[in-house]
Amino acid sequence: MRFTVEDIDTSEVARRKALYGPLTEVVRELIDATIRTEVDDDTIREVHAQVRAATDRLRARQSDGPFGVRFTNDGDGMAWGNAVIGLRNAIAPPLTIARDPDGTHRSQFVLGAAYEGPPGLVHGGICALVLDQILGMTALAGDKPSFTGTLTLRFRRSTPLGPLRAQARVDRVEGVKTFVVGSLSDADGVTVEAEGVFILPAWARE
Ligand SMILES: CCCCCCCC(=O)SCCNC(=O)CCNC(=O)[C@H](O)C(C)(C)COP(=O)(O)OP(=O)(O)OC[C@H]1O[C@@H](n2cnc3c(N)ncnc32)[C@H](O)[C@@H]1OP(=O)(O)O
User: Fold this and answer.
1) DSSP secondary structure string, 152-177?
2) Which of 133, 147, 198, 203 to mutate to test the pocket of ligand 1 (most atoms within 8 A of CB)?
3) Phi (first) and psi of residue 151, to 5 degrees
4) What does the pLDDT read at residue 140?
5) Is 167 in contact with 151 (CB distance < 8 Å)?
6) Pocket mutation for ligand 1, best pick of 71, 127, 199, 206 (most atoms within 8 Å of C-beta)
7) How would DSSP label each residue in 72-123?
8) What are the residue ranges of CATH 3.10.129.10 in the chain?
9) Mean of the per-residue pLDDT values of the chain
């Protein structure tokens, strides 16, 4: 499992954020544009060649596998490949998740065309993806890892593409298990309710 430490300071983290963040954002826009474009066939073929060339340039030097979850010496996490919050992951919406003083976690975000399931609606698996992340981050206590053991969703009504909110809070802790509840909402209220059991794995117990 790739939890690694990188010997870099905050200015280097800021430099990398400023470098990679805009690249990820333009690729995210490219995904949306690819779904929604109605330009002519020749333009599609030209853009295809340009994107192929850009991809080949990035591939000229790359890591062997996924990004992993990296930490600085100060313990700041860089989950930059994460599918929901990753700074370098263009398929991440991305979510910015804030923690209230009482431990509740919240996020406001927009899901566009790339997250469609039924027409105009968010794919159910994407709802699960977003809720797994926010419930999982809520379950974390200190530097202990916590893995989703069970995630239960109730889709109360369809979730429209567009602006959404998610929130989660710890319901209770029983030994190595943390029970978290949360929801996904649109402007009219809750669309999906979630309950999760997050577990401190045996290999991380003292
Ligand atoms: C930065 C934050 C990011 C958050 C990202 C979102 C979170 C994720 O996506 S995590 C990835 C998805 N999840 C996984 O891949 C987990 C795969 N499963 C595993 O690794 C293991 O089965 C794991 C860790 C869940 C449990 O294994 P292990 O540590 O051996 O547990 P074990 O010692 O047998 O059981 C401990 C307790 O948990 C319970 N338990 C075990 N598995 C489960 C489960 N799947 N669901 C509910 N309870 C469970 C047991 O009954 C036991 O309870 P009790 O203490 O009352 O007897």
Assistant:
1) EEEE-SPPBSEEEEEEEEEEEEETTE
2) 147
3) -125, 120
4) 93
5) no
6) 199
7) ETT--EE-TT-TTT-TT-TTS-----EE-TTS-EEEEEEE-GGGBSSTTBB-
8) 100-204
9) 95
Instruction: At 115, list the tokens.
Output: 């997250």
The Cα-based distances of 10 to 7, 68, 92, 97 in angstroms read 10, 19, 23, 20
* Residues in a beta bridge with 174: 177
Indicate the CATH number of 100-204 among 3.10.129.10, 3.50.50.60, 3.20.20.70, 3.40.50.410.
3.10.129.10
Mean pLDDT of 136-140: 96
What's the pLDDT tens digit per position in 144-198?
889 999 999 999 999 999 999 999 999 999 999 999 999 999 999 999 999 999 9
Report pLDDT digits (tens) over 2-28: 678 989 888 999 999 999 999 999 999
In single-letter form, the type of residue at position 126 comes to I
**Pairing state of beta strands 3-6 and 69-72?**
parallel
Nearest CA to ligand 1 atom 40: 149
What is the pLDDT at residue 2?
63
Rounded CA separation 135/158 (Å)? 20
User: What residue's CA is closest to ligand 1, atom 49?
Assistant: 149
Tell me the pLDDT tens digit for each residue of 92-102.
999 999 999 99
- CA angle, residues 175, 126, 77, in degrees to nearest 5: 55
